[in-house]
Queue: 3 jobs
Job 1
Amino acid sequence: MLKTQVIHSPDVLSVIRDIPHLKKYAESFYNCEYRQFFEAFAEILDAIGKDIYLKDHLGYYAKEMRLVAYK
C-alpha cells in the first residue's frame, strides 16, 4: 500500500528528481533500511530548514517522521 500510494504516486514521481535525497529517503523507509533512511532524513530536514515556507513546521515534521520510523 505504501509503495503504490506514495513511492509510485504520480505526484512523487514528478518531483523525485528535483528534490535531492527524496528517492533514497522514500525507498529506504519502505525497505526498512533505517541507517540510509536517517542519513537521507537529515538531508531532507536541512532542505526543509532552508525553505522559507516550511521551516516553521520543521520540528513537527521531524518529530512525526521519527515516531513513524521507530514504530
Job 2
Amino acid sequence: MRREILSVLSTRLLLGLMALPARADQRSQAVPGALNYVEGQASIGAELLSPKSVGSATLQPSQVLTTTADGKAEILLTPGAFFAAGR
C-alpha cells in the first residue's frame, strides 16, 4: 500500500516537472522596437528610461531615442538583432 502511494506521488511529481518547460514558452514575446538594455541617461521622447523600463518601453515609428554622453541603450530590431545607441 505504501509503495503504491509513493509510486503515484512520484509519477505525479515527474509529470508536473515535465510540464514546466511548456508553461515557460507561454511568456510574452519581444516585439521589434522593445527596449532591451539601458544604462545611464536615455529617453524615448519625453519619457526617461531606467533599467525597470527594459521589456516594457517600446520605440514607436517616428519616436526618437536620445542618450546623453554617459547613456547607453539597445532597441530590438528583429529577434537576435539590436540597435545600440551611445556606445
Job 3
Amino acid sequence: MPVIYVLGTTGVGKSKIAIELAKKFCGEIVNADSMQIYKGQGIMTAQPSPSDVMEVKHHLYSLLD
C-alpha cells in the first residue's frame, strides 16, 4: 500500500490537501504533528473538524493530556 506524505509550513493548506487525497485514494490520515497529539490544542494546531473526521478517518489526534 503506498504512503503519501504531505509536508509544509504552518497555514499552507496541508490538511485540506490530505483530506482531498484520502478521499481520492480511499485512504486515511495519520497525524505526524508533534503538537496535535495533545488534547485541547485544536485551535492552536488546526486539528480536523468533526465534519473532516466524518469524511475521512483520522488517526493520532488528541491522544495525550
